[in-house]
Every structure is written in structure tokens, then in C-alpha cells.
Design brief:
Blueprint lengths: L1 E7 L2 E9 L2 E4 L5 H18 L1 H4 L13 H6 L16 H6 L17 H12 L18 H4 L24 H12 L10 H13 L5 H9 L5 H11 L1 H14 L18 H12 L4 H14 L8 H7 L1 H4 L8 H21 L18 H12 L1 E2 L15 E2 L3 H42 L6 H30 L6 E2 L3 E2 L5 E4 L7 E5 L21 H8 L7 H14 L20 H13 L4 H9 L12 H6 L12 E2 L2 H12 L48 H5 L18 H9 L1 H17 L3 H13 L5 H20 L4 H18 L1 H4 E2 L1
Antiparallel strand pairs: 1-2, 2-3, 4-7, 5-6, 8-9, 10-11
Helix pairs in contact: 1-5, 8-9, 8-10, 10-23, 11-12, 13-14, 13-20, 16-17, 18-19, 21-22, 21-23, 25-28, 28-29, 28-31, 30-31
Length: about 800
């Protein structure tokens, strides 16, 4: 027997077992394989094969409505050999390498891309959802409506527990009840140094300062930790940390993502909107409404909120772009919007219904296109592409009346003056070229005086041309700017027809714009402004929606504990995992809505619990019964995320620029000539926090990509944590790490003259704790040894000490203790 493995993205899939004389298949492929099948393979089979090979016709005896049919085959034998595309008859006939060739007509032949897709699928083991044949689903059933995620949130009572002294917060009762039920005993509490480091990285993504650690450790007050939490939640850095979690979900990027990956210079405004919203503790329902329909809310709100609300719709505008011509690929951009919206807010894979009714969740194709119609009634900004390199339809950050006045009174006069100056530049340039030709055409026998006069006229023209260009440069430097947002705007309200098999060129029945049937199915009123986005925003943010509050509190839990109560945070559907503590999930969702949708209130509830303050200690008995810590008997030790690692390096070195970031230094738009063969690529150095780094869709930032940063091409619910040799090599060899180590060493040298006190300071800054005696002895010996090596190597005497301390700094920064939190 052999086990077939296939790497798909970052997941390793066990797609099937191949035994001698048999073809077995796993009961259910991994989610990534299912997604490939549902999004790519199933629509291809429906479009290209089932006309002749469905359950009714089965030409040649071959049915292609299930995996079992393909393995069994027809009159000419099995259609597929699992894991071996080249040996599979299906692949041979579509390649026209065997007979009967399929499709029979040469004009209907599969494209290379379609053949490659089928080949890859068969080589994977032809994963197919268990017991799922290609067929239409009927109406939503009562059983589907009874699924836990679609039930109303219930305000759960606190459960009874035996050890009433253990809980310090209401949520602890839910945790302890399950622990007692399973015969598990929680470990003790984390010590204060561990706890403040945990909370500080958790809430603001930075290490605590030695002064902050000492203050907390020495504070005898009963509410000492509560004061720490309040201070961290009030920090401007809180929004930078938790805003980044939302940007992961929104798959934020500073470039468009199409073939040439054009820059979007205005995208940063949405990033900063998210950060500011978290810092202000903007109610989550309002946060959602602004991101879906902020442009429609802006005219009716305070003038000072107009720009902010328009910018908020960058959540929709930031959808991926595809291909060269937006008109031909807009359906894919809308699919990406629906996919992101569904996963992020509802925890549902709504986009799986693009080509067919969702195979697992009650989302018919008609529901998908009812949402599609709302977004098709929306005007997206165009960022530019190879075929049309100039951006358009960006939204002014002021009301239309003010924008029109600005255009008439400021922009129009400037444009008129610029046109006049441009004409002068052109005129002088033409005259200069003409005079230059005249000078060059004069014969050598010409009178010297005439030659001198001609040259003088030409040089005067050169000067005039230079002066005209200088005037143009001075004018353009003072060009007035109508600030714009990478945002959406209301388009023409329209219903759309279902795209059969997801193909916009194969229209089916028209569907009205409305919300998902399983969540109420409310229709968009005929007179709705903006095509229905305002109604969509209201439906999503309604307290009656059973998913929105649950999904968000689960995400908060996930980022505090490493795993959500639902461990598939963007899939609350049938293919996702059920909650480990369903009553606690509903309790938290109820408290969330009750608090006015305050995210900071939920942070306080979670972090001030005993559950959050447990140590990360192991317990053999507990581990045997609950190896994945499902019931939270201890706190999980975790590696810092990519941004926190980079920010911690800058913080330790003293080089961190804590000011907010703004726009990126993109080249001027007039210079953009990017193509699919010469796409935009850039990495802009900065000492600001990592959330402000320029994020490109098609090329990952070297540091963030290496340490598992979010993929800006798709909504990232949970980051993977890989451990690979290149990460260690980066810490050993990267110029960035060497630079921070040198800065760290300089910081120590400037602060302390005594070597032992430098070592104590270094360990306190790096690890948030005092140095141990053995560490001080080892560090002293190491620095002395490195100094001797440098001396022997001929390094100048005045550089030996700084290089030795820099080497010691790298040792501290490369250690696990620096990048892990207990």
C-alpha cells in the first residue's frame, strides 16, 4: 500500500490510498482539495462532459457524475487511474492521444488550461467530496435550517461548577464546567512577568518596556492587571495590532493584483481607517455598515465624517482585479468581494455557490446572484492595467457639491494654465528643433557672421525651452489635489441573471436582489438608493443575524488563545468544525451585542478571566486526555506573528519609529508602464511598524512572506506557523537583523558603561525578565571570546568591542525566547 500526498498551497493533503488490486479513496478530501473540486473541476465537468455522460445518457457506458463512475469507467475501461494522469484514459482522450477522442469535434476540443486542470486533479488522486454526485439541490430543508449556526443566539445562563473559587470572570464558569466534565484540572496561573509580556504582545503587538514590567510586578493592588489591560487598550498601538487582524480578513494590499499589479496609492487610507476604528472602539455594527455602504451613509452624516465613511468602502474596493480589461473580468472581482464578505462577516463560503448550489450549506446559486446583483449595482474604482494604464472612478473625499465647486474654481483654472504652459513648452521645443536643423544645415563656406547669428538664435531657443519646462515643473509642483479614496460608489441598480456554471456568457434566470434565504431573504426595496448595499449593510449588522456576532467574538477568542471556539473561523457551515464550547460562544455573542458591539469590552472580558491568565505549563495527565488543549486547561505557547517579530527587533534596537504611516513613495503615475512581463515590484524600507509596510499582492514582502504573513490574495482567517531552515538562516545572515543587532549593541553601550549591567539590560529588553547568573557568566565569556577572535582576525582595535557586543545581541535576537510568548 502507498499513501499519496499532494501539496496544495500550504496544506499537505492525504488524497487517497492506492492498494494493489483496489482503488480506495479517503471518505472526505481535505478542505483545500474540496475547494479545488468545487471551484474548478465540477464546473468544468458540467460544462464540457455531462452533455453526453450524465446519468441519463452515459454514452459509451461512461457516467461522469461521481468519482466512483469514473473509476469504474465505461465500455473501454476505467476513465481514471487515481494519482496517475498519464495512465488515465480520460486524460489521454482529451489530449487526443487515444480514441475515442473527446470531445469528438475538433472545434469543441478542451483548451490547454482545461486539460492541465484535469491532469493536476487526477494526479492529486481525483479528490471528490464523499457521496456527492453532480446534481441539482432543491429548496432549503428544515434540517438545514436547524443547523446550529443558523439558530438565533441564545443568552446562555452561567453553568454550575464544583470549584466555585476558581472562576474570576463569568466566562471561566463555561471553561471550568467542561474541564470538570472531562476530568481535567487546569494548571496554575502565569507569573506576572510572563503575563504582562503575553498581554502586551497580544494587545499592541510590541514587547513591554522594562519600566512597564517593573511597575506591574511591584504593584500590590488587586486590580493591577486590570490597569495594565486598560492602559494597553488605550494605546494608539492597539489599533495597529488588531487592525492588522482585520486587514488579514479583508486581504488588504497596496496594489491591484492583476497581471501587472498596478499600485494603488490611495489604498493606505483604508488601512489607516481600520487602525483608527479599532483605536476609537468604533461599534462593530457601525464598522461593518461603513465598510459596505459608507459612501451611501456619508451624505446624511456629519460633514467631518464624510471622507472617513467613503474611505471605509475600501473593504469592497480592495477586491482583487483580474486580467487586462476590467469589463471582461469584473465577474471575478465581484466573486472575490462576495467570497471575502461571506467568509469575513458571516463565516460562510458563499462564493462556492457561484457555479452551482452550495453542496454542503443552504446557499443556492440564486442566493449568490442575488448578492451579485447588489454588487453589480456598484461602481468599483479602476486602478489601471496594462491595456488601460490610467486609473479612474476613484471617489472624491468631499460631497459632490463641494467637489464640483473645487473642480470649477480650482482645478479648471489650474488645468487651463497648465495647458497654456504645455503649449509654450511645445512651441519652444519645436522652434529649438527647427533652429538646430538650420544651424546644422549651414554650409561650411557660409559667412561666419551668419553662422554666429544662427547659433545665437538656436541657443536662445534652447534657453527659452528650458525656461518653459522650468515653469511647467514649478506649476505642477503646486498642482491642487482633489483627495480621492480607493472606494466604491453607487452605480445603476440592476438585477442580474444567474451565470450558468459561473459563466457570464451563459445567462439563466434573472434573480431579484435580496439577502441570503437562510438568513431571512429580505428583498431590496424597489426604491433603494445605491442598488441595495445599504440594506445589505443593515442585514449583515443586525442583532437578529445569528452569525455576525458569533463570528466576530470567535475571532477575538482565536487571537487571544491561538484557536477559536470554532476552529474553522471563516467556515461556520457544515464543512467547518462545531464549537467546542457552544454555550460560551453564545454567551460572548450576547454580551458583545449587549455592550453596544464594543470590541474593547470583549477584550476586557477575555483577558481578565482566569482562563487567559493560566500558565503555559504542561501536564502529562491532561495532555493524554486532551492533547490539542481543546478544553483550555493551560495557555498555549505561541510564536509571534511576522509583524510582531519585525517590530520587536526594531523595538529592541531602539530604532522603531512609532509614528503612524501614510502614503507610500510610489513612482509618479505618469511614469507607470507596467505589463505582465514587467509588473510593478518594490520594497520600501522603513523603521515604522510592519502594518505600515507596502503590501503587494503578487510579490510578498521578503520578511513577512518568510514568517508566514497573510496572503493578500485571499481572506486569511488564521495564519500558518511554519518552522523552516530559511527562517533561522535569515536571523543569522540578514542585513536587517545585523543592522538591528548593531543598533541594539550601540544602545547598550550608550546606556551602560559596566559590562555586567549591559548584559542585564540586554536580557531585560529582549526577554522581559532579569538575567540569570549563569547567563551573565556565559555572556561575559562569549563577548570576551568573540573579542579575541576579532583581534586575531585583524579587526581594528576601535571596532572590536562594538562588533563583539553586536554579535552577542544577535545571539539574543536569534533565540526562541525572543520570538515566542508563553
Amino acid at each position: 500500500m502507498t499513501i499519496r500526498l499532494f501539496a496544495f498551497g500550504q496544506a499537505l493533503l492525504v488524497v487517497g490510498l492506492v492498494c494493489r488490486g483496489a482503488d480506495l479513496h479517503a471518505e472526505q478530501p481535505a478542505p483545500a482539495a474540496v475547494q479545488l473540486f468545487e471551484k474548478e473541476i465540477r464546473p468544468l465537468l458540467v460544462a464540457r462532459c455531462l452533455k453526453c455522460h450524465d446519468d441519463k445518457q452515459a454514452k459509451g457506458g461512461l457516467k461522469m457524475t461521481s468519482r466512483a463512475n469514473l473509476v469504474e469507467g465505461g465500455g473501454t475501461g476505467p476513465a481514471i487511474v487515481s494519482g496517475k494522469a498519464d495512465e488515465s484514459l480520460l486524460i489521454q482522450v482529451v489530449r487526443y492521444k487515444a480514441r475515442p477522442r473527446m470531445p469528438p469535434k475538433e472545434t469543441d476540443r478542451l483548451t490547454k488550461a482545461e486539460i492541465d486542470l484535469l491532469t493536476r486533479w487526477v494526479d492529486m488522486g481525483a479528490p471528490w467530496p464523499a457521496k456527492e454526485a453532480i446534481a441539482d439541490k432543491g429548496a432549503i430543508t428544515d434540517e438545514q435550517r436547524r443547523f446550529w449556526a443558523f439558530q438565533s443566539v441564545k443568552d446562555r445562563p452561567l453553568p454550575s461548577v464544583k470549584d466555585m473559587a476558581w472562576p474570576v470572570a463569568p466566562l471561566d464558569r463555561f471553561i471550568l464546567a467542561r474541564l470538570e466534565e472531562k476530568g481535567l484540572k487546569p494548571v496554575g496561573l502565569a507569573d506576572r512577568r510572563v503575563l504582562i509580556r503575553r498581554a502586551t504582545f497580544d494587545l499592541i503587538g510590541l514587547p513591554p518596556t522594562p519600566e512597564e514590567v517593573k511597575s506591574f510586578v511591584d504593584d500590590p493592588a488587586a486590580n493591577a492587571f486590570e490597569k495594565v489591560i486598560d492602559r494597553l487598550l488605550a494605546s494608539k498601538h492597539y489599533g495597529e495590532r488588531w487592525g492588522r487582524h482585520w486587514l488579514d480578513l479583508a486581504h488588504y494590499a497596496d496594489t491591484a493584483g492583476e497581471t501587472a499589479d498596478f499600485p494603488v496609492p490611495e489604498a493606505w487610507r483604508y488601512r489607516n481607517y481600520v487602525i483608527d476604528a479599532f483605536n476609537a472602539d468604533k461599534p462593530y455594527d457601525q464598522f461593518l455598515r461603513e465598510q459596505v455602504a459608507g459612501d451611501l451613509l456619508a451624505p446624511n452624516g456629519p460633514r467631518e465624517k464624510y471622507a472617513e465613511r467613503v474611505v471605509a468602502t475600501g473593504f469592497l474596493a480592495g477586491a482583487r482585479r483580474f486580467g487586462f480589461d476590467p469589463e471582461n473580468y469584473q465577474h471575478l472581482t465581484i466573486e472575490d468581494t462576495i467570497d471575502t464578505l461571506g467568509k469575513t462577516v458571516l463565516g460562510l463560503t458563499v462564493a462556492c455557490a457561484r457555479c452551482h448550489d452550495h453542496k454542503f450549506d443552504p446557499v443556492p446559486t440564486a442566493d449568490y446572484y442575488s448578492l451579485y446583483g447588489i454588487l453589480a449595482s456598484t461602481r468599483y474604482p479602476y486602478p489601471g492595467s496594462e491595456s488601460k494604464p490610467r486609473a479612474s472612478d476613484f471617489v472624491p473625499l468631499m460631497p459632490p457639491s463641494e467637489a464640483d465647486l473645487f473642480a470649477r474654481q480650482v482645478l479648471k483654472p489650474f488645468q487651463d494654465e497648465l495647458a497654456r504652459v504645455e503649449a509654450e513648452v511645445h512651441k519652444c521645443g519645436t522652434e529649438m528643433a527647427t533652429l538646430e536643423k538650420q544651424v546644422k544645415s549651414l554650409p561650411a563656406t557660409e559667412d561666419e557672421k551668419k553662422i554666429a547669428e544662427a547659433k545665437a538664435r538656436w541657443l536662445a531657443a534652447v534657453d527659452a525651452h528650458a525656461a518653459a519646462k522650468q515653469a511647467r515643473a514649478a506649476l505642477t509642483a503646486k498642482a491642487p489635489t482633489l483627495e480621492r479614496g480607493y472606494a466604491v460608489a453607487a452605480g445603476k441598480p440592476t438585477n442580474v441573471r444567474i451565470h450558468k456554471r459561473g459563466d457570464p456568457l451563459s445567462p439563466g434566470d434573472e434573480v431579484p436582489r435580496r439577502f441570503l434565504d437562510i438568513l431571512g431573504g429580505e428583498a431590496v426595496p424597489a426604491d433603494a438608493v445605491g442598488g441595495g448595499r445599504l440594506q445589505l449593510a443593515d442585514w449583515l449588522s443586525s442583532p437578529k443575524n445569528p452569525l455576525t456576532a458569533r463570528v466576530l467574538v470567535n475571532r477575538l477568542w482565536q487571537h487571544h488563545f491561538g484557536q477559536g471556539l470554532v476552529r474553522t473561523p471563516s467556515n461556520f457551515g457544515k464543512q467547518g468544525q462545531p464549537p467546542t464550547h457552544p454555550e460560551l460562544l453564545d454567551y460572548l455573542a450576547s454580551r458583545f451585542v449587549e455592550s453596544g458591539w464594543s470590541i474593547k469590552a470583549m477584550h476586557r472580558q477575555i483577558t481578565l478571566s482566569r482562563t487567559y491568565q493560566l500558565a503555559s505549563a504542561r501536564d502529562a495527565k491532561n495532555e493524554a486526555a486532551d492533547p490539542t488543549n481543546e478544553y483550555l486547561w493551560h495557555f498555549e505557547r505561541r510564536r509571534l506573528e511576522a509583524e510582531a517579530i519585525r517590530d520587536a527587533l526594531l523595538a529592541a534596537s531602539g530604532a522603531l519609529d512609532r509614528t503612524p504611516g501614510g502614503a507610500h513613495p510610489f513612482p509618479p503615475e505618469r511614469d507607470w508602464k507596467y505589463t505582465q512581463h514587467n509588473p510593478f515590484q518594490a520594497v520600501y524600507a522603513t523603521d515604522r511598524r510592519s502594518v505600515y509596510l507596502m503590501t503587494q499582492r503578487t510579490r510578498r514582502h521578503p520578511f513577512l512572506g518568510l514568517f508566514d504573513g497573510a496572503d493578500p490574495n485571499t481572506s486569511t482567517a488564521a495564519r500558518s506557523t511554519t518552522t523552516v531552515p530559511t527562517q533561522a538562516l535569515f536571523f543569522l545572515n540578514s542585513p536587517f537583523v545585523h543592522e538591528q543587532a548593531a543598533r541594539f549593541a550601540e544602545r547598550l553601550t550608550n546606556a551602560e558603561a559596566d559590562a555586567e549591567r549591559r548584559i542585564e539590560m540586554a536580557i531585560q529588553l529582549a526577554y522581559g525578565r532579569p538575567a540569570r547568573d549563569e547567563e551573565k557568566r556565559a555572556a561575559t565569556a562569549y563577548i570576551q571570546g568573540i573579542g579575541d577572535d576579532l583581534k586575531a582576525a585583524g579587526v581594528p582595535a576601535d571596532k572590536q568591542a562594538s562588533q563583539a557586543w553586536a554579535s552577542y545581541a544577535r545571539v539574543l535576537l536569534c533565540a526562541n525566547e525572543f520570538i515566542y510568548v508563553d
